[in-house]
Design goal:
It is a single chain. By secondary structure, the protein is mostly helical. It has one domain. The chain is built from seven helices and no strands. Helix 2 packs across helix 4 and helix 5 packs antiparallel against helix 6. The radius of gyration is 16 Å and the shape is globular. The N and C termini lie far apart (42 Å). Keywords: Membrane, Transmembrane, Transmembrane helix.
């Protein structure tokens, strides 16, 4: 199930953040595309894993998609919220590349300390807070629904605390990010088409 969810999330995010003709690829779009590529690749390889003979590659892509791509998506959501209230300039692709490298370092450090769950918990908190804050500031129905989805999906994997179900946590983040990006996309399109 997680393979299909990551594949769909990656494809939707890749479609929403694709470079359009005549536009310069923004840093947030590049970060979304990178995360979408990782999620799509991991989801598709996980689907064919019974026929795939390289378990090390699958394990590497699992670590990258769960502990680098999902936190990157949560940070992009937070950066977009900060940009919408005017407190943060738009970062270029180099900055987002460095953020991705920093997330890889954090992954390795938490892996060695056997505390990987905290990356997903922090991603869930950051993504949820940015969704709620965006819904509060913009007050569009899609973003309010996105914030409700974040809150609902946050309860789902955390209901058995202190035993954290990592798969449910990763699925909740992927689903909530997808709904939030779709809501942002449609609210931006509605805003540009209205007179």
């Amino acid at each position: 199930m997680i393979s299909v969810l990551f594949l769909v999330t990656g494809l939707v995010l890749g479609w929403l953040s694709r470079p359009r003709a005549g536009e310069v690829l923004q840093g947030e779009q590049a970060a979304d595309l990178c995360a979408a590529l990782l999620l799509t690749l991991y989801g598709s390889l996980l689907l064919i894993s019974p026929y795939w003979q390289h378990a090390e590659t699958l394990l590497l892509l699992q670590g990258l998609s769960w502990y680098a791509a999902l936190p990157l998506l949560a940070l992009v959501g937070l950066a977009r919220f900060a940009q919408s209230v005017g407190s943060l300039p738009s970062w270029d692709r180099v900055v987002w590349g460095r953020i991705l490298l920093a997330l890889c370092v954090v992954f390795e450090l938490t892996r060695r300390a056997n505390e990987l769950d905290w990356i997903l918990l922090t991603s869930l908190a950051v993504g949820g807070l940015s969704a709620v804050a965006s819904a509060w500031v913009k007050r569009t129905p899609g973003l309010v629904a996105s914030a409700v989805i974040w809150a609902t999906l946050s309860y789902w994997p955390l209901s058995n605390w202190p035993v954290i179900q990592v798969e449910l946590l990763a699925m909740a983040i992927a689903t909530a990010v997808t709904f939030q990006r779709l809501a942002e996309h449609w609210s931006d399109r509605l805003r540009t088409t209205q007179p």
